[in-house]
Amino acid sequence: MADIAVAGTGYVGLVSGACLADFGNHVICVDNNAEKIRALEEGKIPIFEPGLEDVVRRNREAGRLSFTTDMAAAVRKSGVVFIAVGTPPAEDGSADLQYVEAVAREAARAMDGYKVIVDKSTVPVGTGRKVTAWIRSELQACGAGDIPFDVVSNPEFLREGSAVQDFTHPDRVVIGTESEKARRVMKEVYRALYLNETPYIETNLETAEMIKYASNSFLAVKITFINEVANLCEKIGADVQAVAKAMGRDGRIGGKFLHPGPGYGGSCFPKDTRAMARIGQDAGVPLSLVETTIRANEEQKRRMARKIKEAVTGSPDGSLAGKTIAVLGLAFKPNTDDMRESPAIPILRDLAAAGAHIRACDPAAVREALWRLQDIRDSVEFGNSEYEAAEGADALVILTEWNQYRNLNLDALKKRMKTPVLIDLRNVYPRAQAEAAGFSYTGVGV
């Protein structure tokens, strides 16, 4: 059992803190947003993540998880301090470390004995050394330069929508440090996983930091590759789903992330690929594959908007004036309310610019959509259900593959729509099924 402080109650911090408490540790989650802390103390979870509310409640009741705005007190009570604050992209694509630095310096000012400081945020290579320098300078300024500490890089690999499962049943745990003492402390933190024989990757700070960026960048490349294969399949008469299935059977490739669609989004892949590209540029080693992936992913979103216009008007540049387009799904993926970098944003903006009236729905993301799509609010209304959205529509677009969209009553939808046009950007429905129901069908690569 370890005493832990987690700085930041955003997506990574809250999931990490709650799950670390579930491992039997005593965890204090810290945030400078007093309103958020009050809500968490009342059991209100600020993000949509399946299973998280139960984990928080269970550990609050057991006395292992608490919330506070008092960073200094949390640091003094803890032997391990996780930094899990945001690292938003700067204008040049690099990660903005101002919040990481602020937490590191604040933690240093409160240190009263040996601490392990853990970078959980996704940070550029070299950040661990910077954190060490920031803490050391603060300790010296306070006249406490002899207080010992170690810095560890422990990147997260959480998928939104399955983050609790990912944290409690990880493929691996990466521990980057050159201190044997810190390594032992981290194994105690993750003792529950260690006993379950979870693979541990023990390395230095720089390697651990690079593992996170390399992993996410590779997955982004894989998604973009199958999207480009899908675009080619459309031109030559091939079926990308059969191609992807056959590719995935190759043990060297694997079937995950070989699902064509409107492009990747979310809080990680767009930010991390841009940061990875910037790291390469700064090091004088341009990562051309990553840079091309970034450009190709943005083009894929624009291509999807053209695909919708062509399905409705017969031209990729056709006017949608007077047309109503029903859109199912706004979040960048199912089981989350997150619309950060969601393909829905540029696609809906393009449709609105073409004159479309958009009627959209999503099981979780409508509240976020209200402000993310504020610039086109005159062109968008939000329905309570997929059938309500389809009423009188000239076309129906599936943008996010929520489970409830996988078993739609196509006959009922057709009766509600003005024109039975289905643009399935996630290939949820086989063409034969949609056409048998009387729809004109457009998929991606099929």
Question: Can you characterise this structure?
Answer:
There is one protein chain. The protein has 446 residues and is of the alpha/beta class. 46% of the residues lie in helices and 13% in strands. The chain is built from 18 helices and 14 strands. It has helices spanning 11-22, 34-41, 52-61, 71-77, 98-110, 127-141, 163-168, 180-189, 191-195, 205-236, 240-248, 269-283, 288-313, 344-353, 366-372, 386-390, 410-416, 431-436, and strands spanning 3-7, 26-30, 65-68, 80-83, 115-119, 149-153, 173-176, 200-203, 324-328, 357-361, 380-382, 395-398, 421-424, 440-442. The strands form 3 sheets. It has a 6-stranded parallel beta sheet with strand order 3-2-1-4-5-6, sandwiched between helices. A 6-stranded parallel beta sheet has the order 11-10-9-12-13-14. α5 links the parallel β4 (80-83) and β5 (115-119).
List keywords for this structure.
UDP-Glc/GDP-Man_DH_C; 6-stranded parallel β-sheet; 18 helices; elongated; 446 residues; 14 strands; UDP-glucose 6-dehydrogenase; single chain; alpha/beta
The helical percent reads 40-55%
Structural class: alpha/beta
- Sheet with the most strands? 6 strands, parallel
Overall pLDDT score:
96
Number of helices: 18
N- to C-terminal separation? 53 Å
Low-confidence regions = none
Biggest sheet strand order reads 3-2-1-4-5-6
Give the overall form. elongated
Quaternary state of this entry equals single chain
Q: What portion of residues belong to β-strands?
A: 5-15%
Pathway: Nucleotide-sugar biosynthesis; UDP-alpha-D-glucuronate biosynthesis; UDP-alpha-D-glucuronate from UDP-alpha-D-glucose: step 1/1
Protein name: UDP-glucose 6-dehydrogenase
Enzyme class: oxidoreductase
Binding site for substrate: 157-160, 212, 257-261, 265, 333
